[in-house]
Structures are given as structure tokens and as C-alpha cells.
Amino acid sequence: MTHPQLEVLRRNIPGLRLEADPAELEHYGRDWTRRWTPAPLAIALPADVEQVQAVVRWAGANSVAIVPSGGRTGLSGGAVAANGELVLSLARMNRVLGFDPIDRTLTVQPGITLQAVHEAAAGHGLAYPVDFAARGSCSIGGNIATNAGGIRVLRHGNTREWIAGLKLVTGTGELLDLGRGLVKNSSGYDLRHLAIGSEGTLGVVVEATLKLADPPPPTQVMLLALPSFGVLMEVFAELRRRLRLEAFEFFTDRALHHVLAHGGQAPFSDVHPYYVVAEFAMRGEADEVAMLAAFEHCTERAWVADGVIAQGEAQAAQLWRLREGITESLARHAPYKNDVSVRVSAMPAFLAEAQALLGREYPEFDVVWFGHVGDGNLHINVLRPGGMDGAEFVGRCEQVTRLLAETLQRHGGSISAEHGIGLVKKPWLPSTRSEAEIEVMRGIRRVLDPRGIMNPGKLFDP
Ligand code: MLT
Ligand code: ZN
After folding, report:
1. Quick check: ipTM above 0.90?
2. Which terminus, N or C, of the chain has the lesser number of Cβ atoms within 10 Å?
3. Do both 316 and 378 map to the same domain?
């Protein structure tokens, strides 16, 4: 412990766990981006809200920067501690605090994993419908801080839609109780929504009251192979018109190539440019008939080059693995990730322009496209070619991101759809938000964190 006041902190807050051995610093100092060398001052693991407040007040008094930390599965460097910050990990605050059957809410501590939330909701015969592949490791506090999206946004919306209330410890150590689970509350600014997506720059989420939904209906899963993105959009519109879509996810042949290289069986004998995993609600025979008719309709028009409808849960899970396994299969290539959005209707034009530009300017890169069609959200992963040095790779990828940012501007899109801005996308925030908007954000940050100790350097500079 290098900071002389850390001993004071330890003495004054009985029960606060403070860690500073090198393995812990390494572990808690990085997130899934793996680009920065972890160098935190120490790790504070509070057990309750009062301890969080005490740590934040100590940090303010001693001018120590805090990095709020959940499951650190983020992909934008929002939870990286590489500059002597105190990591404030919510890992010990991971319990369900209450369930209300009338309100249909679950109140939880921020360190609970998304999967544990799913299980707790299911235990009460209900569902928490936000879902994505990192569910077993990511925490609800981190989901709130990034307004996490995922594979069911098309049906249920982002995390924001499911937060009935939250408690926030601001940069001054003040505890704000925001929303309080009220369905209607027309009493001025909804500060809860400022905290959601603020990436730890306004304070630390210390409790959340989550709305719950009806349990999911039985579903049917399909994998389709498609000749072009234009056709893919026709299929999307047609299926959405005829059926209740629960998810509609796409990936390219390169994505499938990497998933299969990681293990698994090719779904079709031929390779196709695009694939879709679609899931539909099946609430009776009529849905079954409608699904088969929709499948036939798409096949007759030669939109679908090949397709399979899952026969049972095991095959449905197998088809989903082709989509959900992409991130893991790419991880060993240390990909440079872009997570962009445009309006759904603008996707074909953006994708065509961006693919042509990247192919022309960066032919040496293996670029893997996948994402959430219903949300206009495209993941563009650039893989490091063998023999290219890491620093050169990042430098060239930043040029790729610049090119994407310019293209996005022409299509009215955003440089971050669901991963946040963090450190990785900070240089390109002005391509998505106007200078006036960023100035307003700076002002809000100054009010809630006047000493600038909450996750400094992330999102935008002071
Ligand atoms: C996904 O959709 O799989 C996630 O956003 C993760 C990723 O982009 O790698
Ligand atoms: Zn995603």
C-alpha cells in the first residue's frame, strides 16, 4: 500500500476489505479489453452502502481517483485502472435484497451477476429479460453503468427500460435514492436515467430495483443462410410482420469460420455470406403454422439459401452457440472491437459503404461482422494479422475507427451502441455527440462529482 492514508482508511472502516498484492492489482485493474497495463493503487471491497460512502469520502479528501468495478466484462476500457486509482469493487455486495410480487420487482445489490438475477427472477415465476453472452460474469451494476443491451433488445429494450429505481453514491459520498420503484413519477428531472449509462463517472450504483416481466413464452429457433444483407433485411421485415420475434441476430461467414475453428459442427455444407439466428414466440399451433409459412415464403423467393429449424432445446442451444460463441472464439486473436449503431433502416447502406471502404483501405485485415439487426447494432471486430506488432495494430485500428466514425456521421449513427465509450472510444465521442451536448455532460459531471474523482479519464476529459 503506497498511499499513506490507506492505513487510515483500513483503520477507520472496520470490515472494509483492502487488497494490494500484485495478483489482485493485476486481476482487478483490467477489463476484457486487455489493452492497458493494470496499475491500481489498491482494491477496496466494501460490504455495504455505508462503506462505499466512506471510501468515496476518503478518496475525495485525499484526491484519489476511483474506478467503480463490477464483473469487468466491458469492452471499452470503462473499468480499467492503469493510473494509480483505487478500484472500488462491488463484488462482495452481490445479494438479492427483496422481491415484491405486487410491484413485480427484484431489489439487488450491484455486484450480483446477470445470471443470478435471471435465476432469482425465475425462482419467483418471472423473468428479467435483458440477456447477453457475458451473463455469468457481468454484474448488474456494470450493466446499469453501460446501459447494457444484448440479444433481446429487439423485444424488451435495453437495461434502462428495466430499472425501476436505483441508489447512487455520488462523487461527494452523498446517497441518492432515485426512482424508488414508482411506476409514475412526474416530479422533475429523472436523475435515475442520468446514472444509467454514465460509466461510473457520476457515482457508484449501490442498489437497484429491477422490473420483472412475464416468464418467456416457449420459443422456436431458426438458423438461416442468406446471400446478401439486402435480402437479410427483407427476411427480417417479413418475419417480424408475420411472427413475434424474440431475437434476430446476424453474423458473417468469417464469424462462423472462427466459431467453428474453436470447435463445433458446420451447420450447412456450403459457405454463405450471411447467417441469422432468429427466435420466435410459439404460443400455440397457429404460431407453428405461421412460422412454417414464413419459412416457406422466404425459401420460395430464394431469399434463404439454406436453413434449419431447431428440433428441440438441445439443437436450439447449438444454433445459439454459433452466435453467442463469436466473442470467445475471437478472443485469442485479441480483436479490436467496434460497436456501432445506425437506424435499422440505414443498416444496409452503412454496411455496404463501410465494407467497401475497409476492403479498399485495409485489405490486410480480417474483419468480422456480427450483431443485433433489430437494434441497428453492428459489431465490427478487426483481427490482428500474424506478424503485425501490437502497437502498430492498435494504431491502424484507430484509423479504421476514424473511418467508421466518419461513415457513421454520414449515416446519422453512433460510435458506441451498447459497449459504452470508456477509454477506447473517447477520441470519437464528438463524432456522435455535439460539443454543446458534451459541455452539458461536463456540467452534470461537475455537479455530481465536483472533485473529479469518479472514473476520471473515461467517457470524456474534464
Ligand atoms: C455481443 O453482442 O456478442 C457482445 O456485444 C459482445 C461482443 O461484441 O463481442
Ligand atoms: Zn452485442
Report:
1. yes
2. C
3. no
